[in-house]
Amino acid sequence: MNTTEKALKERIKELTCLYEVSSIIGNTNLDLIEDTLKAVAFSVKKAFQYPENTVVMVSIDSLSISTDEQARQDLKMASHIKIFNKNKGKLIVGLDTSHSKTIHFLKEEQLLLDNVALKVGSLLERIEIQKSEASLKRQMEHADRLVTLGELTAGIAHELNTPLANILGFAELMKSDLDPHTKLSDDVDKIIKNAIFSREVVKKLMFFSCEMPQKMTMVNIVPSIKNAINLLDATFRKEQVKYIVKIEEEELWLRADPIQLTQIMFNLLMNAIYFSPKDGLVTIEALSTKKHIILIISDEGKGFLPNELEKVFQPFFTTKPIGEGAGLGLSVVHGIVASHKGSITAENNIKKGAIFTIKLPKDVL
What we know:
By secondary structure, the chain is an alpha+beta fold. The protein folds into three domains: 3-135, 2-Layer Sandwich (Beta-Lactamase); 144-208; 217-361, 2-Layer Sandwich (Heat Shock Protein 90), CATH 3.30.565. It has nine helices and eleven strands. The strands form three sheets. A five-stranded mixed sheet has the order 6-8-9-11-10, covered by helices on one side. A four-stranded antiparallel sheet has the order 2-1-4-3, covered by helices on one side. The protein starts with a helix and ends with a strand.
């Protein structure tokens, strides 16, 4: 075979490879990305001048694929895999020259590798876009559900307020006419206590639906955080849970309702303490960006199951045993944060436990 024929044969192999790679990527199942990259690697291997001496590797983040992990590699060429113009991995080809020192890479093979790396990068960009779209869709659906629940709970709270006030008022009038040492007086006491408890539940529903009046003022959140922690110090010690505060600045100012800020802290910290194991660590962080104050509270508890993360801010949803929680604490926090035009997210820690991140604008218009 003369030089021209040999060169033509190599160009045909390279074009065939590009066609194959395009077909593989075009028909890929996004749930089987590893299989797709493996097929691409073997297609590239066939396209090189000495396929029997060639090994192709794909390395992206924690994913590593090779056509032959034991192959010797005397020569190497590589091309970066870019995702949104950032290097996220490499497409590497190794060549075993032990059988003949005359074999080498062709300059056209580097161009082929660059083209394939470009196609792989485009595929991974498409996957990232689809993941982002799916995530955004879930967030929008979740927000819509919370808005609907907010409207529903606001209606329920208003409907319950008047009869509860009547029950409480008439029960207190009745008690004033009774001998305090009779069983009837004790029964009326129970009515009063349960009416007060029900009124507190209604208040929490109104917090969730942003129906509670607010007194907005400029507040330095640092003392508020430290005061809440100091008040809960005895609870931390009783439950044998440790805590650490990571706040580098002495002043973090924002416009907010100071009482509601304290309620956010109490609810999140009590939740963290409840789910923390003995000697577990609760971390409280606060920091400032140009427009926001960010508050992060994490624990070392059991974290959330995937289906729990979708419902965590819904009223009456709780992962606590029956009788140990009404499922309103986190929904109240969500309502307060929403009324301050902020956002709150819940996610699992990488190692263990849960992380709540609150982002509050410094100035609510």
